[in-house]
Recover the amino acids of this structure.
């Protein structure tokens, strides 16, 4: 089996010898699931990084994706999010092997990514429609992490940098940290959010557009916009152009979802600095967070 180089590098860097063993076992596992679920498999997708995914056909001719994940808690929350959505706004979960961290998923056909849509306004409307279609009230006994729990990333940042913010801008990060806490404290009843709903995770299907790869997190709907706001941006050194795109997206999503654009703006600012910290926490370089931080800087200065 020929794998894209990125997944081999990522898995071995993150998991060492255990990751190498997982990679080496993939051919056997793919063949086993193909027999179990009666699949005709095709070569894997070329953009793999953290999990194995390949298109295929079921015996009845239905296009599918076989997704074999490296074991971890996010696998079960992804399965749960897909199950609760039930094919509304997200690809359908057709079968699963919880112990094997493996899913058989509906394949979006033709599968064009929203990132390739030429019109940002139309793309934003599409993304907002996917949000509304997929949101479901979080059950009381839900298995998901919470937005409040994700926010404790700021505590890890403080612990790592002896109460400081490391390479992140101290004043902006402090304000984002306090804003995050205030928003959590005033949040309405949670829904099941995708948690990483950006332009690369929304694909065109024959009947519309569907999200893939949900994280699965319980929180207020206004939190969901953050990832969308941080992707496919103009050169953020041009503040006027950046502000125009960001405000337009907020207003479009507000129009489709009925959410408060000001609250979504606040969530975008708070979440941007949390996202920047996650990048640092995972070993990333501060340079890779520049546009994310710039997004927060620009939006912090406006009120909707």
């Amino acid at each position: 089996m020929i794998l894209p180089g990125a997944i081999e590098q990522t898995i071995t860097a993150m998991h060492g010898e255990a990751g190498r063993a997982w990679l080496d076992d993939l051919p056997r596992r793919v063949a086993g699931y193909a027999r179990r679920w009666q699949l005709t498999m095709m070569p894997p997708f070329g953009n793999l990084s953290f999990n194995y995914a390949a298109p295929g056909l079921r015996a009845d001719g239905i296009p599918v994706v076989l997704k074999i994940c490296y074991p971890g808690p996010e696998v079960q929350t992804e399965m749960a999010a897909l199950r609760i959505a039930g094919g509304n706004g997200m690809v359908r979960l057709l079968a699963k092997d919880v112990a094997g961290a493996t899913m058989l998923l509906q394949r979006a056909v033709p599968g064009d990514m929203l990132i390739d849509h030429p019109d940002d306004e139309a793309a934003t409307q599409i993304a907002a429609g996917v949000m509304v279609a997929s949101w479901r009230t979080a059950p009381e006994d839900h298995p998901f992490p919470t937005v409040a729990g994700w926010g404790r990333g700021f505590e890890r940042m403080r612990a790592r940098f002896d109460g400081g913010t490391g390479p992140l801008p101290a004043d902006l990060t402090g304000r984002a940290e306090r804003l995050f806490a205030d928003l959590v404290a005033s949040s309405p009843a949670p829904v099941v959010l995708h948690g990483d709903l950006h332009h690369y995770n929304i694909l065109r299907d024959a009947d519309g557009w569907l999200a893939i790869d949900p994280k699965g997190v319980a929180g207020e709907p206004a939190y969901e916009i953050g990832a969308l706001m941080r992707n496919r941006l103009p050169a953020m050194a041009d503040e006027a152009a950046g502000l125009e795109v960001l405000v337009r997206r907020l207003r479009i999503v507000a129009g489709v979802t009925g959410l408060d654009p000001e609250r979504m703006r606040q969530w975008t600012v708070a979440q941007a600095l949390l996202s920047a910290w996650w990048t640092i926490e995972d070993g990333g370089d501060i340079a890779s967070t520049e546009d994310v931080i710039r997004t927060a800087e620009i939006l912090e200065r406006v009120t909707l």
